[in-house]
Amino acid sequence: MQLHRMLGLLVVSVSVSSLMFTGCTQQRNFEAEAEAQTPTTAAQPQERQANVPYVPTPEKVIERMLKLANVSSNDVLYDLGSGDGRIPITAVQKYGASRAIGIEINPELVQRSRENSQKAGVTDRVSFLQQDLFQTDLSQATVVTLYLLPSVNLQLRPKLLQELKPGTRIVSHDFDMGEWKPERVERVQGSARQHTIYYWVVPENPSANLQ
Asked: 76 near 97, Cβ under 8 Å?
């Protein structure tokens, strides 16, 4: 009788120990699975959504922006937030820019831009990329045009100063870049309101507070 009781207790003890071991093993597996499911790109920037509403720049303002930047056949123009493509198309068609690249995150606008460039007959010198402008390599640009927002301009300023070559011209419709004072400011009277154009030239040695 005593032997049966001892054997019974031993069986129960082994069963409980097995359950505890199994539970611990399962917990470790769940943790390993959770780590395995964590994206390896978690530390990389997530794809940015369009954070600037699409508002077309009037043709009159575009003309003044490109004249102010003195766009010519020597230039490669990048338009950041290019909308329907009107600035890159005009830069090539009317001012003879050697190349113009529009950067736009909205796929529908990119498609519309490509259709517009085809209608204008400038697809050999104009291209449109569906990209986050903060991820775009700007080092080939000699002219950069913007119609974004004040907060976006400020976020973008260090990238412009780091990637663009000295002498590159930057023209912004309506919004400045905080402490980076423009070389010129012009006003253009539109049909509904007055527009402001800001013009900078990338310096050889930008001030530390601007980067």
From this structure: yes
Reported as a single tens digit per residue, the pLDDT across 157-209 is 999 999 999 999 999 999 999 999 999 999 999 989 999 999 999 999 888 88
Q: Are residues 155 and 125 in the same domain?
A: yes
Same domain membership, residue 136 and residue 64: yes
pLDDT recorded at residue 50:
53
CA 39 to chain centre: 22
User: Could you give the C-alpha distances from 139 to 54, 144, 148, 173, 206, in angstroms and in order?
Assistant: 25, 11, 20, 21, 16
How many domains is the chain partitioned into structurally?
2
Model confidence, pTM: 0.76
Same domain for 89 and 32: no
Regarding whether 70 and 28 lie in a shared domain, the answer is no
Q: What is the spatial distance between Cα 117 and Cα 134, in angstroms, rounded to a whole number?
A: 24
Is 44 a member of any domain? Answer: no
Domain limits for position 173: 59-210
Is residue 17 over pLDDT 90?
Answer: no
Q: Do residues 144 and 202 touch, judged by C-beta distance below 8 A? A: no
Cα(75)–Cα(136) distance, integer angstroms: 18
At residue 95, the 3 state secondary structure works out as coil
